[in-house]
Write a structure and sequence with these properties.
Layout (H helix, E strand, L loop, with lengths): L1 E3 L2 E3 L2 E3 L6 E6 L4 E7 L3 H18 L4 H17 L1 H12 L3 H8 L1 H16 L3 E3 L5 E7 L2 E5 L5 H15 L2 E5 L6 H12 L7 E3 L4 H10 L5 E5 L2 H11 L5 E5 L5 E4 L5 H13 L11 E5 L3 H14 L18 H17 L2 E4 L17 E4 L6 H4 L6 E7 L2 H9 L6 E5 L3 H10 L4 E4 L17 E2 L4 H7 L1 E7 L1
Parallel strand pairs: 1-5, 8-9, 8-11, 9-10, 11-12, 13-14, 13-18, 14-17, 16-17, 18-19
Antiparallel strand pairs: 2-3, 4-5, 6-7, 7-21, 12-20, 15-16
Helix pairs in contact: 1-8, 2-5, 2-6, 3-4, 3-7, 5-6, 5-16, 6-16, 8-9, 10-11
Protein name: Aldehyde dehydrogenase (NAD+)
InterPro entries: Ald_DH/histidinol_DH, Ald_DH_C, Ald_DH_CS_GLU, Ald_DH_N, Aldehyde_DH_dom
Family: Belongs to the aldehyde dehydrogenase family.
Amino acid sequence: MLDSRQFYINGRWTKPAVPNDFAVINPATEAPIAVVSLGSQEDVDHAVGAARAAFATWSETSPDERAALLERILTVYQRRSADMDEAIRLEMGAPKRFVKEQQTPAGVGHLEATLEALRAHQWERPSPRGGSLLRHEPVGVCGLITPWNWPINQIVAKVAPALAAGCTMILKPSEIAPLSALLFAEIIDEAGCPAGVFNHVNGDGTEVGSALSSHPDIDMISFTGSTRAGTSVTQNAAPTVKRVALELGGKSPNILFADADLETAVRFSIESCFSNSGQSCDAPTRLLVERSVYQDVVDFATTCAEDTQVGSPEEDGDHIGPVVSKLQYDRIQGHIEKGIAEGAKLLAGGLGKPDGLSAGYYVKPTLFADVTNQMHVAREEIFGPVLVIILFDSEAEAINIANDTPYGLAAYVQTGDPDRGKRVAKKLRAGSVYINGASPDWDVPFGGYKQSGNGREYGEFGLNDFLELKAITS
């Protein structure tokens, strides 16, 4: 079992102020694989002090110096990609092919997009009428709180632009999937990041998360996680009026019109919802289907759901693995139970574990039909491999159902009519809309409307989140 109790503070590995051991569990086996220490207020104060001291010099470095550091981080990251694959597989149970093709490469994508944004950014420019100088400067010391479901994706999506902007930072990853963050701290150290610029403290939200979001010497909090936790972060940050950037939950609609290529659209819908074991905040979890093709879609979706394979993360293949923890497993079971009780038609999956998988937090790929948008399973973020199918009669009704949610992170449209695709996309209240299975590059903004958060990450948009704008008039 790995002993990973230390934190990375002020350029060195440091013991916690007060030992507080926490076992990291492999969700595929339910066995402990590592022990970390959960930090305290004292550890946060230590890290914030280091970051505050380092800000005086790091904030004055040139864009070229910051780009050079990011290039070194990218080089080391690529060399250690196999180590990152293994860390993510162990800590969250993601299958080895999915980790290698999707999870780990996300770090490369963000580093490259941030480098492009940094080199292209105009740090000073005249005001529109030419009477003043407009200057971008780093926002300051940042607290970065990241989740377990796409661990290195969200870490690099915050750390890279913060470094590029000239900020210093303290990273708190999820305590249940901390191995990728610890490895990333090693990468940062090997790349020669100046002491105090990047700091890492493990811990839970109650102790370390709250200490970061309320700390008077932190200028900004960037948080990715649940809407409930995001609300708490915002409340903690309010007394010090620090900047808060949030990327929160979703219940993303996926509108399937009768003129779509049905087989392609249904396969995409099933695979995208169940990918990462359903543990993606922008997963298309509500499939809205036009009446004239409703039964055909239901029948084919049932076949696709039943064909979805679940298996060990150690095996090669396109199967899905377990969900991340017993707590998450139990929550998903509760959502499925409520769907059955509400009268939704269970077409595939359901309660319990798949056959032959008694150990591990495996969930049956589950499909409900005849769901109304007022049902629990249509409104709550389940964060597991559970898809609901909802009927609609007209384009206007589909848009109304799609927008009838407190969330607004992503939306999806399947249609054979390009004009309708764009027309509907413009009416959907979501930060990202994907038409016919299209996927964006790493320089496209990511973030949501409504209770899905505020601010945007990725590329130049992520860089801007970590910058202040100053006007100098002479």
